[in-house]
Amino acid sequence: MSESMHRVFFALWPTAEALGHLEVLAGDLLEYAAGHPRRTPVDNLHLTLAFVGGVPASRLDALYACAARVSAQAFELSLDRFGFWPQGGILWAGCGPPAPLSAADEPSRQRRLLTQLANELRAQLQAHGFAPDPQPFTPHVTLARGVRRADLPRLGTPVRWRADEFVLLESQRGVKGSNYATLASFPLTVDER
């Protein structure tokens, strides 16, 4: 008998307040989109840190151990821009690239903490024989798919939430598409400054 496989990834869940803002933004953005856009269900809105893919049930404990070894600080996440990827027709809200270490402003520090979390998680996964998606980390929340073209406005007010933990999610196929189930959560440390 073959072992069951789990399609998994690590992510940040937005808070309820941030989800409300993202849901409104997704609706507003569709007026700028051509094609046959499909909004991401609000319960599926997340920011992927590391996509792992199919993992046998017997290796899930190893994934939990990898994540438990990650030492990263909690931070305020700020999605401050819209983006569009023609491949896949994806509309998203995200944040800029990691800032240089010399940048001392709070948004730069937050982006560095987010990138450090993703990089440390990916390093742990690779060190323990997992192969996370090799694409460069581009922090974003997918708002809609199936868009042919989009002339996007600027994002006026950033969507913010406090990232106090990251989660291991499993993608499960349902009648109306994929649903995400939380398999485990991992706390981020609080900066005592």
Provide a compact summary of the structure.
By secondary structure, the protein is of the alpha+beta class. Helices cover about 25% and strands about 40% of the residues.
Descriptive key words:
193 residues, alpha+beta, four-stranded antiparallel beta sheet, 3 helices
What does this structure look like?
- The chain is α+β, with helices and mostly antiparallel strands.
- It is 23% helix and 40% strand.
- It contains 3 helices and 10 strands, in the order E-H-E-E-H-E-E-E-H-E-E-E-E.
- The strands form 3 sheets. A 4-stranded antiparallel beta sheet has the order 3-1-9-10. It has a 4-stranded antiparallel beta sheet with strand order 2-7-6-5, with helices on one face. Strands 4-8 form a two-stranded antiparallel ribbon.
- A hairpin with a 2-residue loop joins strand 9 and strand 10 (177-187).
- The protein is globular and about 45 Å long.
